[in-house]
Each structure stands twice: as structure tokens, then as C-alpha cells.
Amino acid sequence: MKRLDGKVAVITGGTSGIGLATAKLFHAEGAQVIVTGTNPATVERAREELRGIATVVRSDSGNGADIASLFAGVVKDHGGLDVLFLNAGIVRSGSIVSLPEADFDEVTRVNVKGPWLAMKSAIPHLRRGGAVVLNASINARLGMPGTSAYAASKAALRSLARTAASELAEQGVRVNAISPGPTDSGIIEKNYGAELARTLRVALEAKILQRRLGTTDEIARAVLFLASDDSSFMTGEEIVVDGGMTRV
């Protein structure tokens, strides 16, 4: 039997990278999948790539009206939902001194406010036995220079997962977090450009015990574990998937 057979799953930030890989895996495991994205070009590409696999909705994860509309549509079409993977997030880099205030605000809006808004709208419609998975990051514990906004936002998500786990326990919904290490999702190239990305990849690979970046499929399989009954006795937990980078 497929692990998400008959389940309705919503993935924010599901038009590329980890979210896209997870959408394909959820579909293969029997779920009806709805993914969101904000970039018009990426959304259109995803609609082609996910044709017959997932419904793609253009929605800004940090916008309350967009999120309310998203879940109203899910409830109208499906009656409720079973799995919520809060994956949407952005990176803005720079030292504390150099990072523009607007960049800090935008990271907080998308990475922290966004998941909070999604849970606020989704919780009344999450069915008993459901699961919420938040995409945090090992950056929350590293103190890596230049990541103040991003790392702080991911630490906030880890905290949010614990609080939500407590609040949703009586509803029969589990809440867990996944913290990926460096992943070959395209985000490094997107944020740093091809030349600097090559240098960064080499430096990161040297710090990872397995001497390589993770793949989006590897992260997606960990998300599936937390979203399915395979992890039925886990809530408030965090799974680190980083090739051993922070484990030894």
C-alpha cells in the first residue's frame, strides 16, 4: 500500500528544488498534491513538469490574503487536508552590519511569518492523523558568518514546530521539522552566481563527512517519513539530514 494513499497534501514553495522533488514523491505515494510558488516563470515551468502530478497555485507564502485564498480553495476542492509541508523560504546573505533592513524583513516575512500564516489557515481543516512538516535548516545551529537573517528564521521554525506540536496534539495532528544540510537544489547558484557557487560547493563538501551535497530526492524521502505513518510516534521532533556535517 502506498504511504500517502488518499491523502491531500499541500506543499508551499513546491515549484522547484526540495519542494518539487517532494511533490513528485508524494504523488508517487498516492497523495493528491497542491504546490505553491510565487515566481511566474517558475510557476509556469512547474505546471508543465507537474502536469498530472500536482496542482500548481501561484501564492505568496508571506501574504495573508494569498494564504487564506489557498486553503479556502483546498477545502472547497478536497474538503480538508492531511499533510502540510511548509517548505517555502528565501536566502538573503550579508553580515549583520551590511545586510539591508529590508532584506532582514523579507526573510522574516517569508520564512517565519509564512509558515505561521499557513498553519493558522490550515489547522482548522487538518484531519485527525495528519502531519505538518516544517523545513528548517542546520544553519540554525551553525553561526555561519553572513547568515544572520536566514539562520535566525530557521531557528524560529524549529521553535514553531515544538509549539505547534503541543497545540495540535489533541487534534491528532503531528508536527515535526526537517533540517537539511547543503543540498544540490539550485539555491546556491541562485543566490551566489555560478562562479562563487563553485567555490562555495567545494568548501561545503569539504565539511561534509560524505564529501558531497545532498540531493533533493534524499531530503524528500525524509519529508515523506515525517508525513507518513512511518513516523506515527514522533511529534515535536527534528530530523537532521546533512551527510554528517553537524553530527560529529
Key features?
248 residues, alpha/beta, Rossmann fold, 8 helices, 7 strands, 17% strand, globular
What's the topology here?
Elements: E1 8-12, H1 17-28, E2 32-37, H2 40-49, E3 54-58, H3 64-78, E4 81-86, H4 101-122, E5 126-135, H5 148-168, E6 174-180, H6 187-192, H7 194-207, H8 216-227, E7 238-241
Parallel strand pairs: 1-2, 1-4, 2-3, 4-5, 5-6, 6-7
How would you describe what is shown here?
- By secondary structure, the chain is an alpha/beta fold.
- It contains 8 helices and 7 strands.
- The chain has a 7-stranded parallel β-sheet, sandwiched between helices.
- The termini are far apart.
- It has helices at residues 17-28, 40-49, 64-78, 101-122, 148-168, 187-192, 194-207, 216-227; strands at residues 8-12, 32-37, 54-58, 81-86, 126-135, 174-180, 238-241.
- The chain is globular and about 45 Å long.
- It is 45% helix and 17% strand.
- The chain has one domain: Rossmann fold (3-Layer(aba) Sandwich), CATH 3.40.50.720.
Number of strands: 7
- Going by helix content, strand content and strand pairing, the class is alpha/beta
Order of helices and strands: EHEHEHEHEHEHHHE
So, CATH architecture? 3-Layer(aba) Sandwich
The level of helicity is: 40-55%
Average predicted local confidence, pLDDT: 96
| Spans where pLDDT lies below 50 across 5 or more residues | none
Neighbour order of strands in the largest sheet: 3-2-1-4-5-6-7
Full CATH superfamily name: NAD(P)-binding Rossmann-like Domain
β-sheet strand percentage: 15-25%
- Characterize the biggest β-sheet: 7 strands, parallel
Rough shape? Answer: globular
The separation of the N and C termini measures 37 Å
Question: What count of structural domains?
Answer: 1
Determine the oligomeric state from the structure: single chain
Total count of helical runs of at least 4 residues: 8
Radius of gyration from the CA trace?
A: 17 Å
CATH topology: Rossmann fold
CATH class: Alpha Beta
